[in-house]
Each structure stands twice: as structure tokens, then as C-alpha cells.
Specification:
The chain contains four helices and 13 strands. The strands form four sheets. A seven-stranded antiparallel β-sheet has the order 2-1-9-10-11-8-3. The chain has helices spanning about 95-105, 160-170, 185-195, 200-205; strands spanning about 10-15, 20-30, 35-40, 45, 50-55, 55-60, 65, 70-80, 115-120, 125-140, 145-155, 175-180, 220-225. The chain has two domains: about 10-40 and about 70-155, no CATH class; about 160-225, Membrane-bound Lytic Murein Transglycosylase D, Chain A (Roll), CATH 3.10.350. The protein is elongated, with a radius of gyration of 23 Å. It is α+β, with helices and mostly antiparallel strands and about 230 residues long. It holds the Pfam family CIS_tube. This is LysM peptidoglycan-binding domain-containing protein.
Length: about 230
């Protein structure tokens, strides 16, 4: 059974922690996108290669560099004909300008670009806008556009702590691994590995733990290294 129609919402914030809503705080789309894309990428060192020997054969592999944030993209429709929402407008220019200002204007308090959270169904994507491209179509006899599509792209964001852990996760010579024993907690293990509790939530996300309060006995957990800044 189909549920009620839920439209994608784009929420804007002044800060990366998303505790201070921007003005306006939300932009509801006119019509949900037909599709959206999420790009996952891995970066390798391009100036050097590592030669690995496997029996009599040798292969050249690129050394891992880092895992950058994901990229989200979708196409949104703006319409002034009234066919989609029953409201006829002279053209779509005012609405596309409003959307551009919502995404690309610098916040007057922080003097910085805004942070966004996109929510639609099971999708929750946090990031910052990197591109907005309009294509205008369907014109009135005097040349005013009555329909437009917007190609919008966001670069994902996560905390510095989580990003550092993810970027170090594929370093087997550096990553600490612990097998969960009865009575272990993630807090105790983080204290043992890192000497503090600052990375509990980040380690839980790196290991895709649904809960860090109850750990499955026998599960192997990865604790990537943390770079300690030098004076």
C-alpha cells in the first residue's frame, strides 16, 4: 500500500553541526526528482606505484591515498504553467532566483557558505553545494521561460574526526584491531587505543555499528590511527 506523498526537503544551516538554521531554513521542492545519484570515490597516489610480487608474477598497484566525501546530484523541475501545482505564474525566473539565493548566498552572520541536509524518504545527505546549473525550456511568445530544470550537486561532509578515521582505515600497518570480549565497551576500547573518549561515535560509524553500547562478542573492530599535531 502506497503511503502519502512526501516531498524532498532541503534544510539550510549556518554551522557544520547543523544546530543553527539559516534564513530561510528550508526549501521544499515543487516536484520530487525522478532519480538522484550518489558518487563514491577513492583517491590513490598518482606519482608513484608500489610493485607487489605474487609468485612468479608481479603487478603494479596504486597506493591508497584517501577516501573523499560522497557527491550527491539530482535534477529538480521549476514550472510556471500551473500544470504541476495548479498555480500559474508569469515565468519561472523569480523561483529559480529564489532557489539560487537559498543555495549560493553567503550567510550574513558567518560570512560563509551554508551547510545543507537533504531529506527524502530513506535519504539523509549532509553536505555543501558545489554546482547549480539551470536549463530553461518552454517559453511564452515574448520569450519568458515557463519551465526550467536545475542540476544541483552537493559534496558530502562529515566531522574531521570521522574523516581522519576513514582516510586511515585502509592502512593495515597502522590500524589497530581489537576482538570484542565479554564486558568490552566501545568507550573502554577507545580509551585503551587512543587514551581518550573523543572518538567513540566516529569509531562506531567507521565499523558500521548500529549501537556502540552493546558490542557483539567476537566481532573484530578497526581503530584507525589518529595523527597527533606537533607543536
Amino acid at each position: 500500500m502506497l503511503g502519502p506523498l512526501e516531498k524532498m526537503k532541503i534544510h539550510a544551516f549556518k554551522d557544520a553541526d547543523r544546530k543553527r538554521p539559516a534564513t530561510p531554513p528550508t526549501f521544499p521542492v515543487l516536484i520530487n526528482p525522478e532519480s538522484y545519484g550518489v558518487e563514491h570515490a577513492v583517491e590513490y597516489e598518482v606519482d608513484e606505484t608500489v610493485r607487489a610480487t605474487n609468485g612468479d608474477e608481479s603487478t603494479t598497484t596504486l597506493p591508497y591515498k584517501k577516501t573523499p566525501p560522497n557527491t550527491f546530484s539530482c535534477q529538480l523541475i521549476f514550472d510556471a504553467s500551473g500544470i504541476l501545482d495548479g498555480i500559474r505564474r508569469p515565468d519561472v525566473v523569480a523561483e529559480t532566483e529564489r532557489f539560487k539565493k537559498f543555495l549560493l548566498s553567503v550567510d550574513s552572520d558567518t560570512h560563509d557558505m551554508k551547510h545543507f541536509t537533504l531529506i527524502w524518504g530513506t535519504l539523509i545527505f549532509k553536505g555543501r553545494v558545489t554546482a547549480l546549473n539551470y536549463k530553461y525550456k518552454l517559453f511564452t511568445p515574448d520569450g519568458r521561460p515557463i519551465r526550467a530544470t536545475a542540476e544541483v550537486t552537493f559534496k558530502g561532509s562529515f566531522s574531521d574526526k570521522l574523516g581522519e578515521l576513514i582516510n586511515n582505515l585502509l592502512s593495515p600497518d597502522l590500524t589497530h584491531r581489537r576482538t570484542v570480549r565479554a564486558g568490552d565497551t566501545l568507550a573502554n576500547l577507545c580509551q585503551e587505543v587512543y587514551g581518550n573518549l573523543d572518538y567513540v561515535q566516529a569509531v562506531a560509524r567507521v565499523n558500521e555499528l548500529s549501537s556502540y553500547r552493546s558490542l557483539p562478542v567476537g566481532r573484530e573492530l578497526a581503530f584507525p590511527p589518529i595523527k597527533v599535531p606537533t607543536a
